[in-house]
């Protein structure tokens, strides 16, 4: 690599969050919505996993987990019981990147949720990317969330802008559906 070549900024890591319900391993798939039956705004999330030199990372395992459109995780440890579960929403999925480093999930926009008395987490989706050499755990956030400014985990990121996305309406899908691109940069593929 020459000195003049631009390096992509590595995606900032974020703390591990609530993970899969006990004893439940996600089957591979990309649709968390049961064919669009889950409540909330359908969100098509896609992107590429790249190294800092822009090389695609093929075959990386990519896992996501998140709260539903009401701010509830389908996890027994989630005590946000004021928010309803959604039996049509899976809450987690695992997939692999294609030869171009690409991945895609169909989910819903998660809601913010109370993490402690007086402290709310902004809406976010947890990501874990595992390549042959590296594992990155991070979170994707949403522009305009009123809790972004006060969130300790988002504020801990070296580059918050790399984690905050801005979904846009997508035509030809479910009414009101949105799409967003979230590229993930790791050090080694
Ligand atoms: Fe979370």
Summarize this entry quickly.
The protein is mainly beta and 189 residues long. It has one helix at 152-155, and strands at residues 42-51, 61-66, 92-96, 102-108, 113-116, 119-121, 124-130, 135-142, 164-165, 168-169, 178-181, 184-186.
Model description:
It contains one helix and twelve strands. It has one helix spanning 152-155; strands spanning 42-51, 61-66, 92-96, 102-108, 113-116, 119-121, 124-130, 135-142, 164-165, 168-169, 178-181, 184-186. The strands form three sheets. Strands 1, 4, 10, 11 and 12 form a five-stranded mixed β-sheet that branches. A five-stranded mixed β-sheet has the order 3-2-7-8-9, with no helix packed on it. The model has no long low-confidence stretch (mean pLDDT 92). The structure holds fe (ii) ion.
- Oligomeric category: single chain
**Quick one: CATH class?**
Mainly Beta
DSSP strand content: 25-35%
Helix content: under 10%
Secondary-structure element string? EEEEEEEEHEEEE
CATH superfamily: Aromatic compound dioxygenase
Basic shape: globular
- Total count of helical runs of at least 4 residues: 1
Spatial gap, N to C terminus: 16 Å
Structural class: mainly beta
Q: What profile does the largest beta sheet have?
A: 5 strands, mixed
Bound small-molecule species: fe (ii) ion
Structural domain count = 1
Q: Total number of β-strand segments?
A: 12
Q: Which CATH-level-2 architecture?
A: Sandwich
Low-confidence stretches are none
Average residue pLDDT: 92
